[in-house]
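Late entry, written up from scratch paper. The run itself happened at the end of the previous shift, but nothing got recorded in the book at the time, so transcribing now.
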Amino acid sequence: MVILWYNYIIPRIYEPLFFPPHQWSLIFPIIIGMMTFGIFSEKYNWLIKYPLAVYVAGYAGVQIPLQLQTMVLRQAEASFLTPDKFTSWMSSINAILIFAGLLTTLIYFYFSARRKHGLGGAARVGITFIMIAFGAAFGYTVMARISLLIGRVQFLLYEWLGIIR
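Output as recorded:
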């Protein structure tokens, strides 16, 4: 406690507040930090709600724009049809298929009201793309499980039982 007092509280809280230049901006974090000690009291344990709200809001304020930038905007940018995606005929077909799949899948999800005329057909194409994607993901999962099974069977037969050499 003495080390904490002299190494942290005196130089980081007491001196900046009471000696010039006064750093009055430290008052809010100090109050929020002191409220966390309310958890140790039955009478004041409701005070912990406010520091937790500040911590969660601060974390969300930092992380949501970063996640939006890295996870959503980068993927949306990668789906645009740009000239660098048309370097060969195979990459051109790939880019057009990805864009068509993205567009028709979004039509299926966002225009889920009554589909008339062209949107109904586009939504059916979108659901086909979704089924292909889910089938590929399921196939990959089954393939990974079978690969793990093969590894375990090889271990049992070769190393553990020594049946097959």
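The CA atoms of residues 68 and 74 lie 9 Å apart.
(Scratch paper discarded after transcription.)
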